[in-house]
């Protein structure tokens, strides 16, 4: 209820996301989630805030470890989930600071002819000092 109240929501019995209770810190120790620099009143290391994102193949796709003193950035977590979902099924990569709807990069292993067929909205390249055209972009499919 405290989590919902903090976020301005009405307290509910069930949260819309899972939370694992680990009062004895057994899981935190196994997963290396203890913050060595931050300690509680008893001198025990605080647990760090960790985000694990798994793909449909049940493999870990991303983990972010936040120190106990730093809050998580949910906008960034949602951005990463959008990127992971897009890039899992399309032959694209998302550049730094990409947001849904922005142009994406065509993966470098995709030949130009195949890329033209897969991305009918067109492909454009970034002008680089070397003159090489390896940074290929397309509107988000």
From TrEMBL:
This is PRDX6 protein. GO terms for molecular function: peroxiredoxin activity. The gene is Prdx6. The keyword Oxidoreductase applies. Coiled coil: none annotated. Gene3D superfamilies: Antioxidant, Horf6, Chain A, domain2, Glutaredoxin. InterPro entries: Peroxiredoxin_AhpC-typ (IPR024706), Peroxiredoxin_C (IPR019479), Thioredoxin-like_sf (IPR036249). GO terms for cellular component: cytosol; mitochondrion. SUPFAM superfamilies: Thioredoxin-like. One of its GO terms (biological process) is cell redox homeostasis. Keywords: Antioxidant, Oxidoreductase, Peroxidase. Residues 83-121 form the Peroxiredoxin C-terminal domain. It holds the Pfam family 1-cysPrx_C.
């Amino acid at each position: 209820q405290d989590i919902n109240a903090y976020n301005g929501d009405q307290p509910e019995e069930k949260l819309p996301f899972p939370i694992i209770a680990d009062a004895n810190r057994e899981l935190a120790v196994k997963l290396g989630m203890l913050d060595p620099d931050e300690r509680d009143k008893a001198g025990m290391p605080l647990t760090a805030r960790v985000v694990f994102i798994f793909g449909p193949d049940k493999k870990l796709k991303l983990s972010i470890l936040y120190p106990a003193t730093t809050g998580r950035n949910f906008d960034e977590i949602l951005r990463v989930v959008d990127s992971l979902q897009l890039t899992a099924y399309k032959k694209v990569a998302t550049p730094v600071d990409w947001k849904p709807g922005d142009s994406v990069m065509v993966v470098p292993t995709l030949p130009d002819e195949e890329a033209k067929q897969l991305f009918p909205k067109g492909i454009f390249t970034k002008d680089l000092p070397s003159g090489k055209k390896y940074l290929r972009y397309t509107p988000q499919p």
